[in-house]
Design brief:
By secondary structure, the chain is α+β, with helices and mostly antiparallel strands. It is 34% helix and 28% strand. The protein folds into two domains: 1-30; 37-78, no CATH class.
Length: 82
């Protein structure tokens, strides 16, 4: 009975080691993704829209100094295509 338990524990440990190896190997083969760029969309008083890089403190509805009567109307991120 005690010998069966030792064999079972050895097999369980070997399977755990195998699955851990496969998981780490899969992680190392994944391509590294590029960081996303965050942009702010500003609508000017004359109706034109501008896009610029996100600045700390931007939020939708904030008055923008980029153009006369400018208001932040959107914030989004773009992931570069490979």
């Amino acid at each position: 009975m005690n010998g069966d338990l030792v064999v079972f524990a050895f097999i369980a440990l070997a399977l755990l080691a195998l699955f851990t190896y496969m998981f780490i190997r899969d992680l190392s083969n994944r391509p590294k993704s590029k960081p996303a760029e965050v942009y702010t969309v500003i609508k000017c008083g004359d109706g034109a829209e501008r896009k610029r890089k996100y600045q700390e403190g931007d939020y939708v509805g904030k008055q923008a100094q980029d153009c006369p009567g400018g208001v932040v109307v959107g914030i989004y991120k773009e992931v570069p295509q490979e």
